[in-house]
Write a structure and sequence with these properties.
Elements (H helix, E strand, L loop, with lengths): L14 E3 L8 E3 L3 E4 L2 E4 L7 E6 L2 E6 L2 H7 L4 E3 L29 E3 L3 H22 L8 E3 L5 E4 L1 E5 L9 E10 L5 E7 L2 E8 L3 E10 L4 E5 L5 E9 L3 E3 L5 E5 L9 H15 L8 H27 L2 E5 L1 H11 L1 H15 L3 H26 L10 E2 H6 L1 H4 L2 H5 L3 E2 L5 H7 L22 H5 L3 H9 L7 H26 L16 H6 L4 H16 L3 H14 L5 H10 L6 H7 L2 H19 L16 H12 L7 H25 L2 H15 L2 H5 L2 H7 L1 H13 L5 H17 L4 H7 L5
Parallel strand pairs: 21-22
Antiparallel strand pairs: 1-2, 3-4, 5-6, 7-8, 9-17, 10-17, 11-16, 12-15, 12-17, 13-14, 13-16, 18-19, 19-20
């Protein structure tokens, strides 16, 4: 088309509506327009407007309001309308230009407006979740019993007796594996209690798994091959056809099987959560995060939908575990949950004391979750955490005097340090055998060393009011109380240095505390005293700091390295009386060891005051042996990955502690460097042959570096999050107790 004055020729671009585009957007059909020697590029910029430029003039043609609404609408229908017209202005002249669409396709009309589409989708998803919760969510105890112990010789018929007792279930699942060595297909028929329960075909020269199900009743399973020999490789009877453990925890059961479903109040709880989060807008995220979230939500909805219809379209029904269902719902609501958490954290920042308390409760709840789930494996018996060996329980004199109590304890072939803490709780003051201290060799493997850490045993005896049957319970709950105090102290420290109190939750990623809990050992209490002492020291309250350090020193004497480092590095920067008051932290420990020497010296001599366990060696020698054992697979299977990764973490922390000491030259950096040096000097025989022992023994190093990171003014939140993420990845996926840590988050069982 031509137009304009001055004889200028104009080559015009064409704009057209995309015929198959669901939103009816504009599409550019040409690239440039030449008018009087001037170039005008890229007329259309998006579906809402097109822009032409010439001599600093701008003419904008807007898309009708109806099309703007259509752009934000879900998939819609298309109707033909009139042609689209546009107007432009040429330099030093005027021209009229008509734009004809390549296809006479007009604006679009949505099937449903946006204001209705999202509520309908939300209601449908909520209904699906409610149905799955009431009909397909349960925690089933899987029961499996082998019906044959090895592959059976070829035969035409196999009769298998159902072993007693049968699984407690309304239906029985039979899982078999058969092999057909013939050149043509084999059809097997299964009968149970005189009734045919199914048939299956096995291709020639192949083997196949076969599943049958029947109502639970007494009888025999008969498998017939129609006068042709075949082999039965495997057969079992169970209450499920299959199950999965991990991120998705589900059970596959016969479609007609009944099970205990969730109570009605769980639906009310779900409805309340949905209503509470309905008023929270989704947190803003980047485009790629939004797409990943949509894919994850689609996977969760697909899982729920498949679970809901499984029993209707097949012979099998899928049952989700409560934790998997909760994880799916949390995934669907994750953006709203994140926004709600952001609002809560923002409001709590104005109430630091409340935030400190909530942080402590969250941290203690994490370890309580791990404890309760492990306790379930012990049948509710807390003594399972103590890891008492058979020989120790039989030789402990206090248990010989109370055989009823001894029968209630869970014992193992091998014991661990928690058993000595338990034994010392019977006599923390070394009074029962004061005249014959040699008997304490039956209480602890090295009485001067173990009784030097008597604080936890004495506290357990005091809290249990001297009743031995309560010792295991009290010991575990004291450890949880230690985590509550530790998290509160760390959050107060973080708040003091300008961080949000919730940042203190990064400490749960330290790999030392989970094995400490699982073996009923008091590192959490000692850590609480350590952090409390540092916090009071910074607040110029040396008496309170000394009291915290003293309590920690009676639980683990290694924590006294921190007040010693503070005295060395900061004596000259404090008032004269302050270091003297802090030095009183050593007095209770020295006084106790002096008393212990008076009781044990007839047998142990000078080592009764201080006993070396012999767990140190040349630097890096133990770590090198650990890595070597990991590569050679001589380390225990659950510890092999940790054997390769944990030494790298410790070497990195040694470098970080040394750098911090050179740069800061303060007490915390000096203590961290000391702990790092001790960590790389731990030997293999005493420590690294059992990786959790090394994880426990290095908790002070992690804690001191965390305190340094929180006190650094220049460190960024992203850097701290990266460090915490690395430790969390190790704790959740590489540590020997990683499965317990994941289960504590209710993610994986």
């Amino acid at each position: 088309m031509r137009g304009g004055s001055g004889g200028s020729s104009t080559t015009l671009p064409r704009l057209k509506l995309s015929e198959g585009h669901p939103r009816g957007g504009l599409r550019r059909a040409g690239r440039t327009a030449t008018t009087g020697g001037h170039s005008h590029r890229d007329i259309a910029r998006g579906p809402r407007e097109f822009v032409r430029s010439g001599e600093q003039s701008l003419v904008r043609g807007k898309i009708p309001e109806e099309q703007q609404r259509a752009e934000q609408s879900p998939p819609c229908e298309t109707k033909a309308t009139a042609a689209v017209k546009g107007v432009t202005l040429t330099p030093r002249s005027s021209a009229g230009i008509d734009y004809q669409p390549a296809v006479d396709v007009g604006l679009t009309r949505p099937i449903l407006p946006t204001r209705l589409w999202r509520p309908i989708w939300s209601v449908a998803t909520a209904g699906l979740c409610a149905y799955v919760l009431l009909a397909q969510v349960a925690e089933l105890a899987v029961t499996r019993t082998k019906m044959i112990q090895s592959a059976q010789p070829a035969n035409t018929t196999f009769t298998l007796e159902v072993p007693a007792p049968m699984p407690r279930s309304s239906w029985l699942a039979f899982v078999c594996r058969a092999r057909n060595d013939a050149d043509d297909a084999l059809t097997l028929t299964a009968e149970y209690a005189g009734s045919v329960i199914g048939s299956a075909t096995i291709p020639p020269r192949s083997e196949r798994r076969i599943d049958f199900a029947a109502p639970a009743r007494a009888g025999s399973l008969v498998l017939r091959g129609r006068d042709r020999p075949w082999m039965l490789l495997y057969a079992e009877i169970a209450n499920v056809h299959g199950f999965s453990r991990g991120l998705v925890n589900l059970f596959v059961i016969p479609a007609g099987q009944s099970f205990e479903r969730q109570p009605a109040w769980s639906l009310l709880l779900l409805a309340g959560a949905l209503l509470a989060l309905a008023f929270a807008p989704p947190v803003p995220v980047s485009t790629w995060v939004r797409r990943v979230h949509l894919l994850a939500c689609a996977a969760a909805v697909s899982l729920f939908a498949a679970t809901a219809v499984s029993g209707l379209v097949s012979r099998y029904a899928v049952v989700l575990s409560p934790r998997t269902f909760a994880l799916g719902c949390a995934l669907l609501l994750s953006r709203r949950i994140a926004m709600a958490m952001r609002v809560v954290l923002t409001r709590l920042s104005g109430a630091p004391r409340v935030a400190v308390g909530i942080t402590g409760i969250i941290a203690a709840s994490f370890f309580a979750s791990a404890m309760l789930q492990t306790l379930d494996r012990f049948g509710g018996n807390y003594s399972g955490f103590l890891h008492l060996s058979h020989s120790y329980a039989q030789g402990l004199p206090f248990l010989r005097d109370d055989p009823t109590l001894a029968r209630e304890l869970i014992t193992y072939d091998l014991g661990y340090d928690g058993q000595f803490m338990y034994g010392m709780a019977f006599d923390p003051a070394l009074s029962r055998y004061r005249d014959d201290p040699g008997n304490y060799a039956a209480v602890a493997d090295a009485p001067p060393y173990r009784y030097g850490r008597v604080g936890f045993s004495a506290l357990s005896a005091l809290a249990a009011l001297g009743q031995p049957q309560r010792f295991p319970v009290v010991m575990l709950w004291l450890i949880l109380a230690g985590h509550l105090l530790l998290a509160c102290a760390l959050s107060a420290y973080a708040s003091r240095h300008g961080w949000h109190p919730a940042v203190a939750l990064a400490y749960v990623a330290i790999p030392s505390f989970m094995p400490s809990l699982l073996f009923a050992l008091p590192e959490a209490l000692a850590a609480a005293g350590l952090v409390g002492g540092v916090l009071f020291w910074e607040r110029d309250r040396p008496v309170s700091a000394a009291a915290c350090f003293a309590c920690a020193g009676l639980i683990r004497e290694t924590t006294l390295l921190v007040p010693a480092a503070l005295l060395v590095a900061e004596t000259w920067t404090r008032p004269k009386t302050t270091p003297i008051l802090l030095a009183t932290a050593f007095l209770p420990v020295f006084a106790w060891r002096a008393f212990m020497w008076t009781r044990l010296s007839p047998v142990y001599g000078a080592s009764a005051f201080y006993f070396s366990p012999g767990d140190l060696g040349l630097p890096f020698t133990g770590l090198a042996q650990l890595v070597q054992s990991g590569f050679r697979h001589t380390q225990a299977a659950p510890e092999r990955l940790a054997a390769l990764l944990f030494p790298l973490i410790l070497v990195s922390l040694l470098a970080a502690a040394t750098t911090s000491l050179v740069r800061r030259r303060d007490g915390l950096s000096l203590a961290a460097s000391g702990y790092a040096l001790v960590a790389v000097c731990l030997n293999y025989a005493k420590i690294w042959s059992h990786v959790p022992s090394g994880e426990r023994g290095t908790y002070e190093l992690f804690l001191c570096l965390l305190l340094i990171a929180l006190s650094e003014r220049g460190i960024r939140g992203n850097a701290l999050a990266t460090l915490a993420g690395i430790l969390a990845a190790y704790t959740l996926f590489a540590s020997p107790d990683a499965s317990v840590s994941r289960a504590a988050l209710l993610l994986v069982r």
